[in-house]
Every structure is written in structure tokens, then in C-alpha cells.
Design a protein that fits this description.
Length: about 325
């Protein structure tokens, strides 16, 4: 199994330091989330990462199909691929904080499919009829791997049929991982692709401390963000215990998009305890706790058949998470 880090670009000098540390510790991927209203610009941040590293693969984790026209996204990722020496990948999702902070709704499956088809074509130098208009990026000739984020059953199946890799955010427990990967494989078969055509990338909120309670307490806002994103629209096929369904649905109405992933005593951070969801969300969406606990959870993820574990290191000292995960988890595996 390979490993990656998603770095939130709060400060680009710090982002460069974190990127160098990530590469030095043996991680394979670095991703930057796309949320223009909350953090620094995606592709400028990725350029900083490209210049600070020489080996890791880099890309959005993830951008969306609404705020960036496919020709704009294709030109941007092709440029990043050029300046990084062919290390770019393109992560795409239906939209979360980037679109919610603009008052938009997430993209529908059909929109996602058309968007990805358009990207593949124009990254290869072809024209594509996108929403009734011909688009192109004339100078691009080298496609990059397209990685699709997915949670629900239909989205997972579609991703298995069209993506080079799937970032799964449906959960990290053994039973949920088995169900998730099975749906990706079903999508591959339906599209006539060989099994394993789409790599499986697991996305995990991460924090490491000497006491599990301390590790969880600092990232409650991130756990709530995962619950809000993964369980939106419907709970059908998402393996939510019956006794928690009401609380999970309440979370959807209470979540504050303008505080997305923000540290401190925010409304989002308080929601997990108020709704009785803290332990469930930590177990479902995080690699969190002592080094031993994080090592054991990582083994569970690896043994389920995941190809790449992408951690989001978000705390008052995110470099400490990156360092401890590299030295106390990756090194021991």
C-alpha cells in the first residue's frame, strides 16, 4: 500500500515546508483540497508543492465539476504536469465546501460523467462537445490520471467504470471497506473493464497523540465534516446503524459550511458530541489515536485491499501528524 497526505493550504510558505517533510518521510502522494472561499488557490498551491518536491505525485484532492470549466481545469492540470515533470494527477468530486460557500448544489452523476469524459478528451488534444459547445485545449497531448471521489453506491459504481482511481470516503471499517470496494468492482464489470482497473484510495482524517481522547478531541470538526459529506442526499446503502440515523440526518441541517475544517471551538466541532456521534465518526472516517491504534487501523485498511491511504493532517501542528505517521506507522509497516 502507498501513502499520501492532503495538505490544507493556509500559508504557502508552510505548505512548502510540509510538502518537503512529506516527501522526505517516504509518502508517495500530496494532495491539495480545492476550496476558494476558505483556503489559498488550488493550482498556485500545487505549483508551490511541485517546486518544493521532486518525487511525490501531486494533484487536487479534490476539485469539482462546477467552479472550474473542464477546459480551465484541463489547462491547469496539464501545466502542473509539465512543471512537475509528469507527476500530476487530477482528483475530482461532486463538490463540498467550494460549492456550498457559493450557494451551489453538488454536481449530479450525469454531470460528473460528462465532465470527466470531457477532461479525458481535451487533455489528449481532442475536441469535445460539452453542453452543446465544442471545447479544446490545443497544446495538451498528455493525459493525467483521473481520480474520482465517491461515497454512495451509485457514485462508487460509476467511478469504477470511468476513473483511474477512486478516492473512497464511505468509511474505513472492515465491513464498509468490503462493501465499498465491491461496488467499485461492480462498476468495472458493468463498463467492461478488467477487475482492478480503478485503484482504491482511502481518504482518512488523521491525528496521532499519546492519548486517544486528545487525538480525537482536536479533530472533531474534521470528523463532522466527513459525516456531513458522506451522508448527504440519502442514507440508503451507506451502512449507517439504525440507532444513529436520526442524529446523522440532524447533522446535515446543523453543519456550518463557512466553518468547514476550521480548528477551535466552532459550531461544527461541538456537533459530534451534541449528537452522540463522536465515537462512530472517529471509527468510521479516521485513523486517530495512539501510534499503536493508528498502526492497527492502517493494517485494517491495507488488508481490505486499499492501494493508497491518503490522510488529511489537520491540527494546530499538522507537520507533527505527518512526521509521527511517517515514523511511527509507515516505517513500522
Amino acid at each position: 500500500m502507498k501513502f499520501g497526505v492532503a495538505i490544507v493550504p493556509h500559508d504557502l510558505k508552510e505548505t512548502a515546508v510540509s510538502a518537503r517533510l512529506t516527501e522526505d518521510l517516504g509518502f508517495d502522494y500530496i494532495g491539495i483540497p480545492d476550496s476558494q472561499s476558505l483556503w489559498r488557490e488550488l493550482y498556485l498551491s500545487l505549483s508551490v508543492v511541485a517546486n518544493a518536491t521532486s518525487k511525490v505525485r501531486i494533484g487536487p484532492t479534490v476539485t469539482n465539476a462546477l467552479t472550474r470549466h473542464p477546459a480551465v481545469a484541463a489547462s491547469a492540470i496539464a501545466t502542473l504536469n509539465e512543471i512537475s515533470g509528469g507527476r500530476a494527477f487530477l482528483g475530482i468530486g461532486s463538490g463540498d465546501s467550494a460549492i456550498l460557500n457559493l450557494g451551489l448544489r453538488p454536481a449530479r452523476l450525469a454531470e460528473m460523467k460528462e465532465y470527466i469524459e470531457a477532461l479525458r478528451a481535451i487533455l489528449s488534444g481532442q475536441s469535445y462537445d460539452y453542453k452543446g459547445r465544442s471545447i479544446h485545449v490545443q497544446w495538451s497531448e498528455n493525459p493525467v490520471p483521473i481520480v474520482m471521489a465517491a461515497e454512495g453506491p451509485k457514485t462508487l459504481a460509476m467511478a469504477g467504470g470511468i476513473a483511474d482511481a477512486v478516492i473512497i470516503h464511505s468509511g474505513l471499517t472492515t465491513d464498509v471497506l468490503a462493501d465499498t470496494i465491491a461496488r467499485i468492482r461492480e462498476g468495472e464489470r458493468a463498463a467492461g473493464r478488467p477487475e482492478g482497473s480503478a485503484e482504491v484510495w482511502a481518504f482518512a482524517k488523521c491525528n496521532i497523540a499519546d492519548r486517544r481522547e486528545d487525538a480525537i478531541d482536536e479533530i472533531k470538526m474534521a470528523l463532522v465534516a466527513s459525516g456531513h459529506h458522506a451522508f448527504r442526499f440519502t442514507l440508503e446503502g451507506k451502512n449507517v446503524p439504525e440507532e444513529l440515523r436520526e442524529s446523522v440526518m440532524a447533522l446535515q441541517g446543523e453543519y456550518v459550511a463557512s466553518e468547514h475544517e476550521q480548528l477551535g471551538e466552532t459550531r461544527n466541532a461541538a456537533l459530534s458530541d451534541e449528537l452522540g456521534l463522536t465515537d462512530f465518526l472517529a471509527d468510521r472516517f479516521a485513523v486517530v489515536g495512539t501510534p499503536e491504534e493508528c498502526l492497527e487501523k492502517t493494517r485494517t485498511i491495507r488488508d481490505a485491499g486499499v492501494d493508497n491511504l491518503l490522510i488529511l493532517a489537520t491540527s494546530s501542528d499538522s507537520d507533527n501528524i505527518i512526521r509521527r505517521f511517517g515514523e511511527e506507522v509507515i516505517a513500522r509497516l
